[in-house]
Amino acid sequence: MPWKNGKGETVEIAVFPSGASIEDFDWRISMAAVAEDGPFSIFPGIDRTLAVLDGNGMMLEIDGRAPALLTTESAPLAFPADIPVTARLADGAITDLNVMTRRGGLTHSLIRIEIDGATPVPLPSPTCLFLCHRGTVSFRRNGETGMLRDGDALLIEQATATVLEIDGEAIAYLVAIITGRPQANG
């Protein structure tokens, strides 16, 4: 689908509620190819976390912050999606992983995991997405088993188990969607 600002395309991995548009999602996980420097789309009331999956990285100029270089080795970077952000590519196109949640009702986390053998992956919330970016892994959870390869994702909803058992060799990412509204003071 085209970016909100019309300057690129994204592949939607998962969205809630199902079928939600770019304007009315509660949470959204996607990958995008970034081929040129330019501004990010503005999403009012949305928090975003970005990780570089492939390519030589990009410098993010986030309003009110020092510029940040994001590479495949960097930890994912969280920032508000409703402030000006400009990307400058380090050396050629990149592919990124983007997680967005609607502020006030949801938060999220995104972590990069290097899998080398049997690895228990904690599931910090009832809604998680495990993305096998590069490699092959088998998984086991609540008697369910399966195999994930490059680019495969496993969406876990209403998780009752607290751990996803993973075995194999891969670079993976775990997204946790956390429900909760900030508590009022007083």
TrEMBL record:
Q: Does the keyword Secreted apply?
A: no
Question: Which keywords are on file for this protein?
Answer: Plasmid
Q: Which CDD domains match?
A: cupin_HutD_N
Coiled coil ranges: none
User: Matching Pfam families, A to Z?
Assistant: HutD
Write down what this protein is called.
Answer: Hypothetical conserved protein
| InterPro entries reported in the protein's UniProt record | RmlC-like_jellyroll, RmlC_Cupin_sf, Uncharacterised_HutD/Ves
PANTHER family, from UniProt? PROTEIN VES
